[in-house]
Amino acid sequence: MRWLWLAILGYACLALETAAFRPGGLAFPVDGHWTRPDLVLILGLLLALYLEPRDTFLAAWCLGMGSDLVSIAGRLGLYAIILTALLVTIGAARHRVGRTSALAQVGLCFAATVAAHLVWYVAARALEGAPPAFLRSVEESVLDAAYTAVLAPYVFWLVLRLRGPLGLGSERFQD
Question: Which one of 21, 48, 139, 155 is most buried, by most CB atoms within 10 A?
Fold first, then answer.
């Protein structure tokens, strides 16, 4: 694994998320919530499906912390903890998942995004002292997950084309 290339790819995902998928850009409003995809989660999910657990832990933590650093919510470390726990869990079951199937990628990204964002929305509201608004959190999570899931096969395809520069040998990409 070439960590410098992973850092560059993670930075590109964060930059694209914050620049292109913002209000007035490719994000769209639904009932006061700006729906946008979580490209960092897609990248982390791909890594969880192919990397060893130790590498998954480190990559997930770094991607989550990067996402926390650009977040306007100001909850440093919250998404890093959630993303790390989720991706390490998925990575432990990676041999049971069809990694090359676009349908499996869409389904897994949808479920992972709903889980990560639902926990994040509820926890962030609780830390603010606001009412939990659980149904609102579910709605926001599902909207973000749908947008993320639609883009997942394309991001998987692109990152898998970069496995050489990332230093991921082809033996890790065999099902």
Answer: 48
Q: Are 41 and 113 in contact (CB under 8 A)?
A: yes
Distance, in Å, from the CA atom of 102 to the CA atom of 100, rounded to the nearest integer, reads 6
Residue 65 corresponds to which tokens in the numbers above?
A: 């912390």
Residue 147 structural domain: 3-22+37-165
CATH number, domain with residue 81: 1.10.1760
Tell me the pLDDT tens digit for each residue of 36-79. 999 999 999 999 988 888 999 999 999 999 999 998 777 899 99
Q: At what angle do helices 39-50 and 53-70 cross, to 10 degrees?
A: 170
Tens digits of residue pLDDT in 94-144: 877 777 789 999 999 999 999 999 999 999 889 888 887 899 999 999 999
Q: Does 29 reside within a domain?
A: no
